[in-house]
Amino acid sequence: MSSDAPLIADDADGAKQRNSPKFLLALAPYVARYKGRVAAALVALTIAAAATLVVPVAVRLMIDDGFSTQSAGTVNRYFGAMVLVVGVLALASGGRYYLVMTLGERVVADLRAAVFRHLSSLDASFFDGARVGELVSRLTADTTQLKSTFGASASIALRNFFMFIGAVGLMIYTSPKLSAFVLIAIPLIVLPLYAAGRAVRKRSRAAQDTLAEASAYASENLGAVRVMQAFGAEAATNAHFDAAVEESYDAARVATLARAVVTAIAIFLAFASVVVVLWLGAQDVLAGRISGGLLSQFVLYAVLAAGALGELSQVWSEVSAAAGAAGRIGEILAIKSRIVTPQPPVPLPTPPRGAIVFDHVNFAYPSRPDAAALHDLSFKVAPGETVAIVGPSGAGKSTIFQLLLRFYDPLGGRIEFDGVDIKTADPAELRKRISLVPQEPVIFAASFADNIRYGAPGASEAAVEDAARKAAAQGFITATAQGYAMKIGERGVTLSGGERQRLAIARAILREAPVLLLDEATSALDASSEGLVQAALKELKAGRTTLVIAHRLATVLSADRILVLDAGRIVEEGTHASLVARDGLYARLARLQFETGAHALSGSSAAAE
């Protein structure tokens, strides 16, 4: 995001600032990228405004001169000139509309891309508490609100601002006396609009917030539709969403009502002032102080000014509504990631070796600061070594992977990769050297090939197929109608757990990183597939550092070392044989899995103690 200006300042007045229309001015850096288009739009706008403001002059000349001469030719020339003016007005207005609208689309597209890039750069602790549905709502609904304001509303606002300034200036030139009455009325129109803007902004922001809540709830439940239906929760879920939608509607209705009231008041005041001025002008015409054509010219300018002011009042309401959406987007862009790349980063050695060191590491998740996940954890993994990490649930096994990938930073101690403290390295470069197979593989709504290629986008078709073959995934892939080009449903819902895991393993194989992190990588495989994958992993682990998390101890028997974790501490370390002989926690876990009958029951009792 370094190339994009943040939308808001991260200061104590942030909440107040996020509700201010001034906040929209922060879009200026995005607009400044397209100076040529802005200049062309302003030229078209100026021509369109000038052409409109010429019409009242033509009307005055036609009334005062054309009709008095009784010459059809003169009248025809005036009407011909007006047609020409209207033609220029139409062309300029069309050009202005196109330029301003496409500029708004372009700016909002850039803003959406900037928000998504920023979200993808935030650390894991942000997403621990964020709701993805709400973030998507900000990317869609809020930016759509901005697009409407910055596109159509900006076009209307600029046109009417030019028209208002030009019409007021020509009103004063036409009749200073009558203009004085109009100018007195302007503050009476503008001040209520400004005062009402706060209420409109507050209600519009509330409407956007309730819509985001409803979107988040819908996204969450549609993502788990099978669970919803399995538990018969459709009625309760529908009722909850109906209530959320109704609340969103009520908030939007109140916001719209506020905008409607403001617009109605502004239009009444604007045109009522025109009626009063017209009455005063009629008195001057009757007294012979001005001509009928001059009064017509003044009235037309007054109507143009009043209409422009009325349109500006409506746009002001829309801008006030957009300020809430812009503030919500600004809140995201103001968030700073806790995981940052130091400047300059310490380069990791080349070629990589895969040496890992945890040195007195302490850690607690930001969402659970009082529940320490790791306590003074220290261990080393030599290049090419396979180390298994076992222990009961909640012992801290997966936390080790999270820290090694630098999704979080430890609260104490240090973690080294090839002799470099990972806090001083570029996280992206660190992660390029690690392949992860998670316990719950993430499968995207893309083809089999694209899912395997996810960590290595430039890989060839042959490399993809080789990785799938080594992961024992080629069979179920080629059995489909389109093979590797077959599109998979979102989150891989049409695949079995074992098939999803084999795709994740193929993805890790294709990445060819020097360090492998296997988090229960074969837990969902049947015996036949597990044998094939274990053979592939054995080949893959050759020459690579491998950390294996496993609850099924049979999968770690061949590990060079086994670390036994309990409550965030290493309580035992050694090979399978030595740990069984020690008769500690590992031995009790082994008896639970490998023995039956009385031995298993006694082991279970011991583990419970």
TrEMBL record:
It is a multi-pass membrane protein. PROSITE patterns: ABC_TM1F (PS50929), ABC_TRANSPORTER_1 (PS00211), ABC_TRANSPORTER_2 (PS50893). It is found in: Cell membrane. The chain crosses the membrane at residues 38-58, 78-99, 156-173, 179-196, 257-280. Residues 356-592 form the ABC transporter domain. Its main location: membrane. One of its GO terms (cellular component) is plasma membrane. Residues 39-321 form the ABC transmembrane type-1 domain. The keyword Transmembrane applies. It holds the Pfam family ABC_membrane. SUPFAM superfamilies: ABC transporter transmembrane region, P-loop containing nucleoside triphosphate hydrolases. CDD domains: ABC_6TM_bac_exporter_ABCB8_10_like. One of its GO terms (biological process) is oligopeptide export from mitochondrion. Belongs to the ABC transporter superfamily. Part of an ABC transporter complex. Transmembrane domains (TMD) form a pore in the inner membrane and the ATP-binding domain (NBD) is responsible for energy generation. NCBIfam families: MsbA_rel. This is ATP-binding cassette subfamily B protein. It comes from Methylovirgula ligni.
